Structure formats: structure tokens, C-alpha cells
Amino acid sequence: MKLPQRSSRWSSNQAQGISASLLSAIVLGLTAVFGKQAINAGTPPFTVVMLRTVIATGLLWSAYLCFRPLRQFVYIYLVGILGCLSAGVINGLGSLMYYAGLSHMNASLAQMLYTIYPLLLTLLSRLDGYPISRFTVLRLGLALGAVYLLVGVDSGHADWTGVLFMLGSGAFYALHLAVNQRVLYDVPAPTVTLYTLTAMSLTVTAAYFISGRPIMPPSAVAWQSVWLLTVVTLISRLALFAGVKRLGGVQTALLGLSELLVTVFTASVLLGEKLTPVQWLGAGLLTASVLLVIRDKSLGTIPEPKPWFQILTTPVPPTFPPPAPTPAANPQKLSE
After folding, report:
1. Is residue 159 part of a domain?
2. CB-based burial of residue 58 (10 Å sphere; 0-12 exposed, 13-18 middle, 19+ buried)?
3. Which residue would you say has higher pLDDT here, 95 or 334?
4. Is residue 314 part of a domain?
5. Are 283 and 150 in contact, with CB atoms under 8 Å apart?
6. Average pLDDT in the 155-184 region?
7. DSSP letter assigned to residue 30
8. DSSP 129-160
9. Which has more pLDDT, 3 or 160?
10. Which of 34, 217, 263, 274 could disulfide-link 222, Cβ–Cβ 3.0 to 4.6 Å?
11. Per residue in 232-248, is it b (16+ CB within 10 Å) or e — as a string?
12. What is the pLDDT of residue 249?
């Protein structure tokens, strides 16, 4: 009787993680489309990423401070906040690369290149003791072939500047997931979302001012796309870290592949984008390379993270010898 009960509880936890990860993927699949719409409407990429991140962060802080049940998620310990801030800076830099790359290519192609991040996250998981399997090498080979077919053969929709931006963005996204998976080991997902988004906002705002404060959205259509992008960002972040906490970063990233299908479909409907047959072949190879991660069964469990800062996790030996016991501590003396 006990075995089915444990299995049922685990299945429920998995179901919640899968639901959250799929929701995040579906919503994230719209970011490229709404971002491309804002850029096509005349909004500079740095303005797009700054507005959507800062507004989403402001809405999140307002909700946490105004509603009493959410205030508990504001508390976080020192090492946890350092991890969230690190992940936020990393993802902020990746977001800047993402929207810069999006300005150079179609939304569908950009998202296909971006979906290489599960493979990069698999490699990063090696730092937590996972071995690099033959399937990983096979997936990397398929991914490189997919990138060549997507942008190197019969591709007039992108340039290599955009390609490098999107690949760099995917690498930074994978790194931020690896960092946040450690924090999520003992910090609630809403707390991680709050502080990671805050660090992202500071990063992209600094980049916005360093780049000379590009213009604001010039039209109502541009502002509409920015607001839709903001809502997408807020929902996707809350769902993303809920999925990572229950499934781990690699499995969440694997389910995140479904965002590619959402992007391709919505881009064809809203933006009129089309892929060539060769690019569809590259998309199929990329899909296969990511789906093969399911063969690495050891990646289905979430390991206990190794210490980040040894000085914070190792007891400090005493500098001075302990004081000698006082005569009053002697039972014989007390009895006399």
C-alpha cells in the first residue's frame, strides 16, 4: 500500500512541474512574435527589452507588497539572493542579445536557433556530476548540422551577426537556468522569480542608458506589442521557475522545445513568415537533437547542489582554545 502512495505523490509533483513548464513554453513562444512586432513598428531592441523587463518587475513587486499572502516570498537569505542576482545579470545580458539578434532575422528562425539552449544546459549539468554520454555527443552533432541547414544553406532571412546573437542568448539562458536550479533547491519559485527579474531590470536599464537612451515606442501599435510582451514575460517567468523547482532545469528545458512550435505557428499567422524546405529539415534535426535528451535517464533526477562558496559552507575552526572548565562544574566539589 505504501509504494502506490509514494508513486502517486511523485506523479502529482511531476504533473505540476510539467504543467508549469508547458505553460512557460507556450507563453515564451509568443515573445519572439511580439518582440518582432514591436521592432517592426519602429521600437529599438534595447528599448523593447528594457520596457518589458522593468514593467514586469514593477508589477511583480507591487503584487508582492500589496497582497499579504505574497509578502512571505520577499524574504530571502544572503547566498540565495546572490544566486538570483547572478542569474538575473546573466539572463539580462542574454535578453539584450536575443532582441538584438531578433532585429536581424525572422522570428521563426531566431527561435529555432535559440532552442539550442537545452543542449548547452545538458553540458552545464556536467558540473553537478552528470557524465557526458554518447547521446549528448550525438545531439551536439545533430544540433550543429541543424544550425548549418537553418542559416548556412539557402537562407536569405538572416545574417551571421543575428545568428551569433541568438546562439549567445541561448547560451546565457542555459547558464541562468543552471544557476537558478541551485537556488531553487531550497528557495521558493516566486522568490527566485522576483529577485531574478529585479537583477534583469537593473542590467537592461543600465544597457539602455549606456546605449544613449534609444527612443520610446513611436506608435500605439508598438506600445501594444510591448505590453503584450510584458504580460508574456511575467507569466512565463513565474511558470518557468515553478517547473525548474519540480523537474530540474534540463527536463524543463526539454519541455520548453514546444515554444518553437508556438513561435512558428504564430509567426506564420501574424507576421506572414515562411520557411524553406531546407530550413524545415534543419528544424527537424534540431527537434531530434533536443528530444534525444530523454535517453539520458540520469538527468531525470534533481541532484543536491554542490557548495558554491566553500567559505560559507565549511565550519570555521576556533581561533582560540576553549576555556578550561570552572571548579563549580566539578560534581565532587558541588557535593562537598
Report:
1. yes
2. middle
3. 95
4. no
5. yes
6. 81
7. T
8. T----HHHHHHHHHHHHHHHHHHTSS--S--H
9. 160
10. 217
11. bbbbbbbbbbbbbbbbb
12. 58
With 0-12 / 13-18 / 19 or more C-beta atoms within 10 angstroms meaning exposed / middle / buried, residue 165 is: buried
- Can you tell me which residue has the cell 560534581? 331
Cα 332 from Cα 150, distance rounded (Å): 86
Q: Which residue has the cell 522593468?
A: 54
pLDDT above 90 for 258: no
Give me the amino acid identity at 287.
T
pLDDT tens string 64-91:
899 888 888 898 888 889 999 999 999 9
Number of structural domains (the chain) is 1
Find cell 558554491 and name the residue: 308
Residue type, 99: Y
**Per the domain annotation, does 299 fall within a domain?**
yes
In a domain, 152, yes or no: yes
Taking 70 as the threshold, does the pLDDT of residue 131 lie above it?
no
Strand blocks (E) in the chain: none
* Residues spanned by the domain of 53: 14-305
Of 242 and 249, the structure prediction assigns the larger pLDDT to 242
